[in-house]
Amino acid sequence: RVGPGAGRITPLVKGVRLLADGWHGDEMRILYSANKHVYISKSGLSTGRIGWQPSTPGSSGPLPASTVRTINTRKDGYGDALLLPLSQRLPYQVEQSVKPNKVTLKIYGATQDTDWVSPADTDADEISKRANLEMVDGISFRQVQDGVFEVTAQIKGDRQWGYKVDYEGTTLRLRVKHAPRLAADGLLTGLRICVDPGHGGTESGSIGCNGMKEKQLNLEMSLKFKAALERAGAHVIMTRTTDAETVSLDERVNMAVKADADLLISVHNNALPDGRDPWKEHGTSSYWYQPQSTELARGLKDSLISAVGFPDIGCRFQNLALCRPTAMPAVLVEVGFMIHPEEFAQMLDPVVQERVAEGLLKGVHRYLARK
Question: Which end of the chain has fewer CB atoms surrounding its CB within 10 Å, N or C?
Fold first, then answer.
């Protein structure tokens, strides 16, 4: 986090070496660079014995530092990969932008001595290999300041499908997801969509006007959405299929990532805290966290409103666990309000629930139709 209990930044994978120079409550203060500290929960850190070796990157030893000599490129099953061989696992931060379309990776403790950018596989013609990258249109790098190295992948077009950052040994990998390959007939064949019915099990969510729990309504809508997607040819991954399942937020995200989902859509219904007027504040909204998800969030919200006719209360940035994944566009939709009698009564109707499913499906179609 950028401060104690404050905003989140790029999470780090296991084995990254860090220098701690203080603490605040249950969070350790970590020195990334001369002018940058971050805070990490003590439960997410471990200390090792003195005597660090590259084969045991989590152990104690020299300060986290490395020289960056090459940047390699290659394609894999996920997308285009930028590979940066380092002498040890350093902390990093990713910043994504759609306008201009790019992904920037900052490496803390790194010093530029970069002679070339080249394909990882040297048995093929370099120009041919570079031309075969599907999403990355260019690569630039610079030394931002002492101990901070920055590499930027310029992305083709004006849309991104996701990215991952991790280590393979001590090689830092930034992988940019390829666009899904869809059938030419307009169906969703080949698309993998993770549908998340919000709450469930011991997590009830909000309560409707008749005492119905949000988790049940979310599931009814999500199952109809699943059926609509499958009729259109999509492969659907459900984070739960019954009201008995208590699935943590992390588990839901991991399901989508492990299934290599192309889209993650979490279905909810809304409420207000005590003291707010549901007659004045109600309607349909959607939420995003990563810039790559903004267009999908706006399109799903607009299609839902066209389908059910509830008021438009916006498409907003929100720090929600189901919106934070970077591996695919991830969106949370709030169809209507559990505590608004008229909206709630409509949402109980199976016919309206089918319209919700068709509205979400139309939003997915419209999103994919724009090249």
Answer: C
Beta bridge partners of 95: 104
Is residue 48's pLDDT more than 70?
Answer: no
- Phi and psi for 62 in degrees, rounded to 5? -60, 160
Question: pLDDT band for position 35 (50/70/90)?
Answer: confident
Is the pLDDT score of 168 beyond 90?
yes
Q: Go through the chain and tell me how many residues it has.
A: 371
- Asked whether 207 and 199 are in contact (CB, 8 A), the reply is no
Q: Which CATH number fits the domain that encloses residue 113? A: 2.60.40.3500
The Cα–Cα gap between 304 and 301 comes to 5
Residue 198 CA to residue 270 CA, distance in Å, equals 11
Q: Identify the CATH number of the domain in which residue 357 sits.
A: 3.40.630.40
Average pLDDT over residues 197-213: 95
- Provide the pLDDT for residue 277: 77
> What are residue 193's DSSP bridge partners?
236, 263
Helices of type H across the chain = 126-131, 214-231, 249-258, 294-308, 341-348, 350-369
Instruction: Determine the 3-state secondary structure of 61 from DSSP.
Output: coil
Q: Which domain holds residue 317?
A: 192-369
For residues 173 and 197, membership in a common domain is answered with: no
* pTM for this predicted structure: 0.91
CA distance 70 to 164: 20
- pLDDT level of residue 279 (50, 70, 90 thresholds): confident
The verdict on 233 and 325 lying in the same domain is yes
Distance CA 106, CA 50 (A): 27
Q: Which residue pairs from 219-224 have beta carbons closer than 8 angstroms and sit at least 24 positions apart in sequence? A: 219/243, 220/350, 220/353, 221/197, 221/267, 221/335, 221/347, 221/353, 221/356, 221/357, 222/195, 222/196, 222/197, 222/267, 223/197, 224/353, 224/354, 224/356, 224/357
